[in-house]
Design a protein that fits this description.
The protein contains ten helices and five strands, in the order ααααααβαββαββαα. The chain has about 325 residues and is an alpha+beta fold. The protein has two domains: about 110 residues; about 140 residues, 2-Layer Sandwich (Heat Shock Protein 90). The longest helix has about 80 residues.
Length: about 325
Amino acid sequence: MYLRSRLERASVVALFAMAVTGGALVGFTPVAMVFPGLAVLSAASQWRVAVAALVGAAGWLAMAVGVLVEGRPAGVLLGGLAAVLGGAVVGITRRQAVERTEQLARMEVEVARTEVERARAELLGERNHLAREIHDVLAHTLAALSLQLEAFSTVVEADPDTSSAVREQLERTRMLVHEGLDEARGAVRALRDEPAPLGDQLTKLSAQQNAAFSESGAPVPLPAPAVLGLYRVAQEALTNVMKHAPGARASVALTWSPEVVSLSVENDAPGVAAPTVLGRSGGGQGLRGIAERLELLGGEVESGPTASGWRVSASMPLGGVLAPAERAEAAS
């Protein structure tokens, strides 16, 4: 009942054979008593005492038969009994030492797991704190600014003498404020591990940037860092289109497969329009930053020219970012 596998049963049979054969040979050469002792030692090291006792009893009975048949003195039997008992003691001691080591290892694993959970709880607490600060300061400030711009827009619209350039600039400012407010809300959701679906976020971003959006494959829920990382790739790529190829057509494609989620942003070659102030802004570190962000999540970013323009592509293996249950759901 203690032997669960075929290998264990075969091992016990081999030890029985070793003990009986060695015990029988003691009648011819007393040194053979070492074999029953070793068989008992091995049995006591691996299984409970009952198995070792059966192996030892079989070996000693075979030893007694061999000694009686060959007419050896009774002292040989006592020596054989000592060998069997010595093997049992050594084997039991070894087994207990192994069990203590395993128990200590399990305790260390539990302690390490507890530390990881504690650190995770502290991290989540800090992220929630940051989310509250962003919401209370930045989001509220942008919301107030948006209300002020709405009021100012009403005044401007009521004045027929206001130039079209002022109206356009005001509308652009209102759009930027609304986008900033959406960004702040998205950051709060990400910090709280409550991101909106990636496809929904990219649909909205593409509409804001006048880019075509397409999604293929079966979407799966992604953790907040992965959603935010891929979103930043699209955001940076579309911003670069606005900077360096104003007016060029752009497209965003999100592709899901059982193993990888891929994102591609393509745009046509820039026209002959004069460089804009926006195009001369920035330090050229955007693509490097998003590449580093995705690398931490196990993904990668590539960018380069195409036959008709420029492409930025990113991919992230789902196995590295999904929890086990989510991976099983994605594979089903």
